[in-house]
């Protein structure tokens, strides 16, 4: 057996454990699912499961990472197809939720942990910094590839704010019981339009004092543990 | 015994049960506290406790109502002392949190239920409609008593949005571990300033299309189960 196939077997085992865990979290709830039960259902030894994932929290972080990769893949065509900021923002949000759809139930069940900012499962926790940065990168790309001119002082804070907005959309979508989550689709269309209008209005000279206070607020109250 | 003293004894018993329940929710958590334990600790028969509060949820709603009354009392001097919208808004928020301080711990422990919009303990539940209306009334008063002119089409949606903003502030405050919750104080000062600036800018003719989309959004996505 070569090193390459060894690695690939390890990756496959890791994937299997994660897929099993996601399905168990979904069926039995996160709290009731033990590492022992996950290892058993995956057909791997408990020590082996712990080798790949030090704790249940690590499994959740791996789930977040998997959904992030799926989101990037789904957003790529959108980001290549238009230079209008409104179309890019709305398109990315729709594509993200499309990619999250298979995980909707399990994310919903995990959400109550995420709502507590001190939990390592919170989207604002230091533990999930890398995933957060990856998700913010999507919005950085939305802005950077747009044809619209925005005032340069907004630049750095904007991807963060769009990421925060996207967290709100995901929260709404997780609780949206309308057919096919149609209400969320409408919410995205209305709010993305408003937000881009707001960004553009904010770049007008009239807005300078307002923009300054807003940037001060964002800087002082960033929730993403950025430097 | 006259009808009046009968009633007043009833009110006293009801108050005693509520105060006992709040303290037990705080010490042992909402889920671990039973109606039986509350009745026992209050020195009343279980049937008597159920006569006043049909369920634990009713006790939480009564707690919300008590905090609302305390908030109105604390805000009254603020609303009488200034006609500046910024001062009124910031003053009301500071006064509200002051009134909520004795309940901070128990509200924090109840929050995770409130984060699920389908829970009767959610601030958006039909069960808490009356309390929500009472809280929105405070923001109605903030706007109505201000000297600033705002465009009339914003009118109805504004108290609702300010109430939603206040819910965000309360959420932040519940999780604020800075000394004396000083970060929340700063957040109120920065955001109330920004929000009033935003309201006033929104009243400019330049903003008409933006304002229209914003009002449409608010109307379609109100979370407060208003008519």
Describe the fold and architecture.
The structure is a homodimer of 227-residue chains. With 227 residues, chain A is mostly helical. In chain A, 71% of the residues lie in helices and 0% in strands. Chain A is built from 10 helices and no strands. In chain A, helix 2 (35-42) packs across helix 3 (46-52) and helix 4 (56-81) packs parallel to helix 7 (129-144). Chain A is elongated and about 65 Å long. The A-B interface holds A 111-112, 115-118, 175, 183, 186-187, 190-191, 193-194, 197-198, 201, 206-207, 209-210, 213-214, 216-217, 220-221 and B 111-112, 115-118, 175, 183, 186-187, 190-191, 193-194, 197-198, 201, 206-207, 209-210, 213-214, 216-217, 220-221.
Question: Into which percent range does the helicity of residues of chain A fall?
Answer: over 70%
Work out the helix count of chain A. Answer: 10
Q: Which percent range describes the beta-strand content of chain A?
A: under 5%
State the major sheet of chain A: none
The helix/strand series of chain A, from N terminus to C terminus, equals: HHHHHHHHHH
From the alpha-carbon coordinates, what is the Rg of chain A to the nearest angstrom? Answer: 20 Å
Mean pLDDT of chain A: 90
Please give the oligomerization state of what you see: homodimer
Give the class of chain A from helix and strand content and strand pairing.
Answer: mainly alpha
Strand count of chain A: 0
Largest interface: A-B, 27 and 27 residues
């Amino acid at each position: 057996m070569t090193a390459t196939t060894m690695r690939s077997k390890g990756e496959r085992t890791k994937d299997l454990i994660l897929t099993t865990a996601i399905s168990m979290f979904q069926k039995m709830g996160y709290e009731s699912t033990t590492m022992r039960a996950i290892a058993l259902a995956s057909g791997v030894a408990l020590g082996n499961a712990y080798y790949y994932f030090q704790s249940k929290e690590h499994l959740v972080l791996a789930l977040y990472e998997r959904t992030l990769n799926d989101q990037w893949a789904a957003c790529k065509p959108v980001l290549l197809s238009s230079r209008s900021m409104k179309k890019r923002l709305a398109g990315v949000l729709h594509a993200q939720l499309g990619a999250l759809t298979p995980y909707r139930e399990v994310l919903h069940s995990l959400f109550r942990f995420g709502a507590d900012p001190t939990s390592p499962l919170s989207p604002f926790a230091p533990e999930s910094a890398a995933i957060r940065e990856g998700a913010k990168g999507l919005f950085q790309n939305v802005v950077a590839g747009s044809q619209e001119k925005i005032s340069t002082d907004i630049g750095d804070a904007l991807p963060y704010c769009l990421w925060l907005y996207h967290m709100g959309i995901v929260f709404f979508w997780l609780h949206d019981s309308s057919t096919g989550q149609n209400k969320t689709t409408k919410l995205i269309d209305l709010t993305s339009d408003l937000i881009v209008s707001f960004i553009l209005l904010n770049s007008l000279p009239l807005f300078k004092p307002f923009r300054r206070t807003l940037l001060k607020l964002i800087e002082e109250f960033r929730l993403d543990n950025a430097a």
